[in-house]
Design brief:
21 helices; 584 residues; 36% helix; 2 domains; globular; Glutamine Phosphoribosylpyrophosphate, subunit 1, domain 1; six-stranded antiparallel sheet
Amino acid sequence: MCGFVGAFDLNSGSAPIAEGLKEELRAQVLEMSKKIRHRGPDWSGVYTGNNAILSHERLSIVDPLSGKQPLVSDDEKIILAANGEIYNHKEIRARFEGSYKFRTGSDCEVIIPLYKKYRESGDFSKMIEELSGIFAFALYDSEHDVYLIARDEIGVIPLYQGWDKAGRYYVASELKALEGDCQTIEEFPNGHYFYSKDEKPTRWYHRDWESFDAVKNAPKATDDKGEVINPSVIEKVCNGLESAVKAQLMSDVPYGVLLSGGLDSSIIAAVTQKYSKKRIETDSKEAAWWPQLHSFAVGLEGSPDLIAAQKAADYIGTVHHEVHFTIQEALDALPDVIYHIETYDITTVRASTPMYLLARVIKSMGIKMVLSGEGSDELFGGYLYFHKAPNAQEFHEELVRKMSKLHLYDCLRANKSLMAWGVEGRVPFLDKDFIDIAMGLNPSDKMNIKLPDGKQRMEKWILRKAFEDLLPESIAWRQKEQFSDGVGYNWIDTLKKMTEEKVSDAEFARRENRFPVNPPKTKEEYYYREIYSRLFPSDSAARCVPHEAGVACSTAKALEWDAAWKNMDEPSGRAIAGVHDKAY
C-alpha cells in the first residue's frame, strides 16, 4: 500500500513543454506528493517525462528491497505508479516469464506486461479483470504518449482526479494532494479505468448479481422454516472466504489482525490464525517468518468490543493487545482525523477516530499490515435495519446499493485511518471472487425470517453458521454492534452533547449561507464541516463527500421500509428502536 501523484497532459498547447516549466511542474508534483508521504514513509521516487510526471511514496510490504516505484518496464518505455496489492501476481507473472523480463519482485509489476498484452486491442476491461486485488494505478506509455488510470472494483483503494487552470490532468491517492493546485477535484470512480484516448472513464466492473433476477432462483441453503436443506451452499461461503484470507496473507513484513470481538473481525482473525504458521509465498511449504499472530482491539475502558475481543482472542490463540483511549484523547484527535480521512460524514468521523488512534499503536509495534472485517455487513445484510426489509428483492437491491457506496464510507475509513500511520489494511470479505459468491446467494438465505418459535433469525445467519466451529458460541452468535458504538457508547453520546453545545442555534440556522454545498443536517455534522472547510476550503472538496440521509447506516431508499424512520437521520445502530435491544 502506497500513495502516488500523477500529472499528465503537460503540453497543454501544441508546442513541446519548455524545460523551465517542466522543472516547475516537477517541483509542484513533489510538493503535492509530500502531503501524502504518511501513506508511504519507506521510500520516495519520481519519473519526469516530456508529457507526464509520476511521484510515488512507498510503503514496502512485498519485495521491500527491489520493488521501488515508479516501476519501469523492461524496455524502459512504460512507467507505472501503483497503490495496492495484486494477490494473484504469481500466477500472472508465470504466464509472462518467457516474454517479459521482470525487473523486481513487486506484485504490481505484473500490470505492465498485462498492459502490453492488451494495448493493441484496447480491451482494458478484460486486462483489469485479470487482476485480483485492491489497487489504484497510473500507467504512462512514453512511446505512444498515452496513459491508463484504473481503480479496483469496490474502491478499497482511494483515488482522486483533478484539473488545473491550464487543463492539465492530475490523479492522486488522496484529495489533499490536489487541493490548492487543481481548480476542479473529483473522486475517480471505483470499478472504472480512464484511457487518455477516450473522453471519459469507462466502467470495467460488471456483474450479473447487480440484478435481483440473477439471484432470485439461486439454490437455497434453508427452507422457509429456517432448516438447512443444502449444506453445500454454506460450505461454499466457508471455503470461499478461507481462500480469500489465505491469498491475502502475502507479505514480507510483520502483519496482524484487527479484532473488535464482533463476528466479522473474529472470523477473519480465526481463519488467519489457521494459515499463519506457514509462509503463503512458498505455497505453505516453509515456516512463516512471524508465526505468532498478533490481534488488536480498541475501545473505552470496559467497552463491549474490548470484552468480546478478549474472549475471541483467548479462543483463537492470538497474541492480543487491548488499546484504551479516553474521550478527551479522541476529541483532541478530531482535526487530525478529519484531515486524514478527508470527510465530514458523521458515521465515518465517529468510527475513524478510534481506528486512527489504534493504528498509531499498531505501527509503534512494528506491524505494517493488518487484516480487517470490512464489507461483511454489505454482503450479508448485517446492519440491524435489514430486519425491516419487506421482501427478498428489496433486501438484495439494498445490498447492491450498499456495495456501490462502500468506497465512500467503510473502505475510506479503513484505508485512510490506517494509512495515516503507514499501516496497510486488507479486507478479505471484499475479495473479488468472494463477493461473487456472497452476492450470488439466494437473498432469502440472508434475510431475518421469522422462525417457528416466533423469533427472527439473526442477521448474517449463513455466515455465522459457516464459521461457528472456529469461534466461541458467544462470538459466533453475538448481535451486531456498529464499530463506533462497540468501542463504547459514551463516545457517541459525548460527540452529540459536545457538538450541540459548540454549535449555536444562530450558527446552525445560517448553515445554508455558511455551507451552500451540502448544508449540514445536524449540529454534529456542522462541527465536523467547520474543521473540514478549514483544511479543504474548495467547493470541489466539499462535493467529494457523500451527503445522504439514513438510519443506522442505511441508504436513503431504505428509509421507506418503516414510517418511523421518515424523519430520522442517525447512523448509530441504537437508532433502531426495538431491534438493537430486543431483536432476539
